[in-house]
Specification:
The complex is a heterodimer of chains A (about 140) and B (about 80). Helix content of chain A is about 90%, strand content about 0%. Chain B is mainly α. The N and C termini of chain B lie far apart (about 115 Å). Classes of the chains: A mainly alpha (about 140), B mainly alpha (about 80). Chains A and B meet through helix 1 and helix 2 of A and helix 1 and helix 2 of B.
């Protein structure tokens, strides 16, 4: 009779753990997607701000290619500053894809194993996003 | 020879316990499956979104420069 409660406890722990891992992966995905979306919206707005600031000087250029080159040069420092953040995001993509495949294949063990990596990757990129939005070259 | 009453009671309790355990496990498995079905599309959406991140950034940078250039050239043509 002592074996049955132990088996039950083991099964319950495993099943609860599996559900929890799926839930955490889902909520991590939601949060990370929102953060990256916010980063992209911010970048789009900053590009236009920088280009508007550069307009008076770029408008003095004679030809369209020169004007375009002037604008491209104006946003180059901003693009360089956001690239490490984008690299972090690109680096997280394969991990998220692996987690998706594991969850889809009902491979709870692999999914649970990937959870800390996905969460850590998302947290690292979130910190980089926040830092970029506070300190990027203006 | 009749079966003692306590044996019947014990068997009945064992069957009830087995049913309770089965129901509990079934309930947990349903919870796991529900969580899994919610997580899959979320992870897929994120993986697809992240995979195209740099592409979107570069496209937006190109579009922003092109728009700004077109605006300047338009103003030049119009003598603004």
């Amino acid at each position: 009779m002592t074996g049955a409660p132990l088996i039950l406890a083991f099964l319950s722990t495993c099943l609860v753990g599996c559900a929890s891992a799926y839930q955490t992966l889902g909520s991590t995905a939601d949060t990370f997607l929102l953060r990256v979306d916010r980063f992209e919206v911010y970048n789009a707005a900053r590009r236009r701000e920088i280009l508007a600031e550069a307009k008076p000087s770029c408008a003095t250029k004679a030809t369209a290619p020169d004007v375009e080159a002037c604008f491209a040069a104006a946003i180059a420092p901003f693009e360089a500053s956001r690239r490490p953040v984008s690299a972090c995001i690109d680096g997280a993509a394969p991990l998220v894809r692996a987690a998706e495949k594991a969850v889809e294949a009902k491979d709870a063990k692999v999914a649970a194993g990937l959870l800390p990596e996905v969460a850590a990757g998302a947290a690292k990129c979130a910190l980089k996003i926040e830092a970029h939005m506070k300190t990027e070259v203006k | 020879m009749s079966i003692p009453v306590w044996v019947g009671t014990a068997l009945g309790l064992a069957v009830d316990l087995g049913k309770m355990v089965a129901a509990a496990i079934e309930g947990r498995m349903a919870d796991v499956e529900a969580s899994r079905l919610v997580a899959v599309p979320k992870l897929r959406a994120l993986a697809d979104f992240l995979a195209k991140h740099e592409e979107r950034e570069e496209a937006d940078a190109t579009a922003a420069v092109r728009e700004a250039t077109e605006e300047v050239m338009h103003e030049k043509r119009e003598g603004i």
